[in-house]
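User: Some background: our group keeps a shared notebook of sequences we're curious about, and every so often someone picks one and asks for a predicted structure to add to the entry. Today it's my turn. The entry only has the sequence so far, pasted here. Could you supply the structure so I can complete it?
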Amino acid sequence: MSENQNIEPSTETVEHVKLTFFGRIRTYFLAGVLVTAPISITIYLTWTFLQFLDNKITPLIPAAYNPNTYLPFSMPGLGLIIAVVFFVLVGFVARNFLGRLFVRMYEYVLDHVPVINTLYGAIKQIFETVMASQSDAFKEVVMFEYPRKGLWVLGFVTGRTKGEVQTLTKSETVNVFLPTTPNPTSGFLLFVPKKDVTYMEMTVEEGIKMIVSGGIITPPTPADKAEANGRKKKLL
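Assistant: Of course. Here's the predicted structure to add to the notebook entry:
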């Protein structure tokens, strides 16, 4: 065989090169999706929310006081700013004597309207409980066995069980909201014996991420967090 004769690569070598090439393309593609998808979805949802507020609130402003009337372009986020200012003003008025008097008047009227009084009372109590600064609702993540021994779930403590429910149980229980995956806004209310729940060190945000992702996103352990904080301190 002549030394100048070209030696053709084998079929196996060509296929290996092709697989390696397409494997790298696939890796780069997934990395690109991983980088761009979260920020793109976040921007899209934020923009959609701002547009929703602008479309609902901005038209309520008289044209003489609407900045969009004078500007050559519409001001994004104007609806959100107006909503924040509105709630601040309502809260300021409600804290005054006349505001408290007005609140007591309309609550008295609502309390005497069938069906509406029950609905209003329940919604008000939920908001007061969740938004109270001293409230323990949705501040602790717990793990317990459900729906049978050997199976474990994550839940959020909404408070200590009180009233008739607690008097009818033999041991001290806590109210636990058990969310569903991937929609954590729906779920079940369980009254779990306090001795049967294990309090987690993960934050509520980390627990929600784990539930929504179906377990794909796993929060770091306390040891991992301590190690990461130690490395940060060394770098500083």
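Suggested note for the entry: Residues 43 and 78 are 17 Å apart (CA to CA). The helical segments are 11-57, 67-70, 78-94, 97-111, 116-131, 163-167, 204-212, 222-235.
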